[in-house]
Amino acid sequence: MRLDKFLMNSKIVKRRVLAHDLCEGGKVKKNEKILKPSYKLKENDLITIELANRVITIKIKENTSFEILKEHRK
After folding, report:
1. Which residues form a coiled coil (predicted)?
2. Are 41 and 28 in contact (CB under 8 A)?
3. Range of the domain at 59
4. Is the CB of residue 19 less than 8 Å from the CB of residue 4?
Protein backbone atom coordinates (compact mmCIF):
# COMPACT_ATOMS: atom_id res chain seq x y z
CA MET A 1 0.00 0.00 0.00
CA ARG A 2 1.17 3.54 -0.73
CA LEU A 3 2.48 5.49 2.24
CA ASP A 4 0.07 8.42 1.87
CA LYS A 5 -2.93 6.06 1.65
CA PHE A 6 -1.70 4.13 4.69
CA LEU A 7 -1.37 7.28 6.80
CA MET A 8 -4.95 8.24 5.94
CA ASN A 9 -6.49 4.75 6.32
CA SER A 10 -4.77 4.15 9.65
CA LYS A 11 -6.16 7.47 10.99
CA ILE A 12 -2.71 8.96 11.67
CA VAL A 13 -3.80 11.94 9.55
CA LYS A 14 -7.33 12.88 8.54
CA ARG A 15 -6.88 13.46 4.81
CA ARG A 16 -4.67 12.04 2.09
CA VAL A 17 -3.61 15.54 1.05
CA LEU A 18 -2.19 16.09 4.55
CA ALA A 19 -0.34 12.76 4.34
CA HIS A 20 1.03 13.75 0.93
CA ASP A 21 2.18 17.14 2.29
CA LEU A 22 3.91 15.50 5.27
CA CYS A 23 5.86 13.25 2.92
CA GLU A 24 6.75 16.05 0.50
CA GLY A 25 7.83 18.22 3.44
CA GLY A 26 10.36 15.63 4.62
CA LYS A 27 8.44 14.75 7.79
CA VAL A 28 8.15 11.00 7.13
CA LYS A 29 11.36 8.97 7.27
CA LYS A 30 12.67 5.44 7.26
CA ASN A 31 16.24 5.01 8.51
CA GLU A 32 16.78 8.79 8.26
CA LYS A 33 15.79 8.68 4.57
CA ILE A 34 12.90 10.91 3.51
CA LEU A 35 10.08 8.89 1.97
CA LYS A 36 7.92 9.88 -0.98
CA PRO A 37 4.11 9.61 -0.80
CA SER A 38 4.22 6.76 -3.34
CA TYR A 39 6.60 4.60 -1.23
CA LYS A 40 5.23 1.04 -1.06
CA LEU A 41 5.10 -0.04 2.58
CA LYS A 42 6.42 -3.45 3.53
CA GLU A 43 5.82 -5.51 6.63
CA ASN A 44 8.26 -4.67 9.48
CA ASP A 45 9.14 -1.20 8.12
CA LEU A 46 10.00 1.29 10.87
CA ILE A 47 8.63 4.72 9.99
CA THR A 48 9.19 7.99 11.88
CA ILE A 49 6.53 10.67 11.45
CA GLU A 50 6.95 14.29 12.58
CA LEU A 51 3.54 15.81 13.28
CA ALA A 52 2.84 19.36 14.49
CA ASN A 53 3.54 18.74 18.18
CA ARG A 54 4.86 15.18 18.40
CA VAL A 55 7.08 12.59 16.76
CA ILE A 56 5.96 8.98 16.51
CA THR A 57 7.79 5.86 15.40
CA ILE A 58 5.63 3.03 14.12
CA LYS A 59 6.24 -0.51 12.93
CA ILE A 60 4.15 -1.72 10.01
CA LYS A 61 2.53 -5.07 10.77
CA GLU A 62 0.23 -5.66 7.81
CA ASN A 63 -1.40 -3.51 5.14
CA THR A 64 -3.37 -1.26 7.50
CA SER A 65 -2.16 -2.26 10.95
CA PHE A 66 0.74 -0.85 12.88
CA GLU A 67 2.28 -0.70 16.34
CA ILE A 68 3.44 2.54 17.96
CA LEU A 69 6.96 1.94 19.22
CA LYS A 70 7.82 5.42 20.45
CA GLU A 71 6.01 8.73 20.82
CA HIS A 72 7.28 11.99 22.25
CA ARG A 73 6.44 15.68 22.23
CA LYS A 74 8.56 18.18 20.36
Report:
1. none
2. no
3. 3-73
4. yes
Which band of pLDDT confidence, cut at 50, 70 and 90, is reported for residue 63?
A: low
Percentage above 90 pLDDT, the chain: 88
Angle made by CA atoms 33, 18, 25, in degrees to the nearest 5: 35
CATH number (domain holding residue 16): 3.10.290.10
**Residue 56 backbone dihedrals phi, psi, to 5 degrees:** -125, 145
Q: 0.85 exceeded by the pTM?
A: yes
Strand pairing of 46-50 and 33-34? unpaired
Q: How many domains would you assign to the chain?
A: 1
